[in-house]
Amino acid sequence: MAPPLEELRKPTPAESGEWTLRFLQALGVEATLPASAERPDAYSALVRALLSSPTVCSSPTSRVSCTLFVSSSATNAYNMLHGGAVAAVAEAVGMACARAAAGDKEMFLGELSTAYLSAARLDTEVEVEGQILRKGRSVVVTTVEFRLKDSKKLCYTSRATFYIMPVASL
């Protein structure tokens, strides 16, 4: 029987963190994270470590292309490229493309949609190419395509919308 509604409450962040740690310890995960994981840019470094040989072309339509090697650290239980890794790489490449087009303005990701068309298997190389679809004063829309390097087969495609932060006028 469920407890009465008066007894249900949202846990504090400290309680939630403690419960998560106990859950992970029950699974047998007791190792501490390395100091590099505590840095503010740890997520960016993790995503950039997946990519190699980046190329930026800032012609009228900015393009960013790079190669992604599908290693075991980025695969799921089926030895295919993990969907979260696809989305993280799409965000990073899309942001690089948007920055190449809009300059060093402050922006944030508003929307990211990804279509998972086919799978990239372990130990394969994937060509990642991002380009600008639309650039306005306050918005940049990019598309990122993931193709298998050997067959040029389209595996994943993403579309990201980045919003440029307005400059405060004092």
First-last Cα distance: 58 Å
Biggest beta-sheet profile: 6 strands, antiparallel
Tell the overall outline. Answer: globular
Order of helices and strands: HHEEHEEEE
Helix content: 25-40%
Number of E strands:
6
By DSSP (H or I, 4+ residues per run), the number of helices equals: 3
- Label the structural class: alpha+beta
Strand order of the largest sheet: 1-2-4-5-6-3
Mean pLDDT: 88
- Our estimate of the beta-strand percent is 25-35%
Low-confidence stretches: none
Nearest-angstrom radius of gyration?
Answer: 20 Å
Which descriptors apply to this entry?
6-stranded antiparallel sheet; about 170 residues; 6 strands; single chain; alpha+beta; globular; about 35% strand
Would you mind describing this structure in some detail?
Helices cover 25% and strands 33% of the residues. Strand 5 (139-148) and strand 6 (154-164) form a beta hairpin. It has helices spanning 13-26, 42-50, 83-102, and strands at 51-57, 63-69, 107-116, 125-135, 139-148, 154-164. The protein is globular. 20% of the residues are buried. A six-stranded antiparallel β-sheet has the order 1-2-4-5-6-3. The chain is α+β, with helices and mostly antiparallel strands and 170 residues long. It contains three helices and six strands, in the order ααββαββββ. The model has no long low-confidence stretch (mean pLDDT 88).
What is the secondary structure topology, with strand pairs?
Elements: H1 13-26, H2 42-50, E1 51-57, E2 63-69, H3 83-102, E3 107-116, E4 125-135, E5 139-148, E6 154-164
Antiparallel strand pairs: 1-2, 2-4, 3-6, 4-5, 5-6
Helix pairs in contact: 2-3
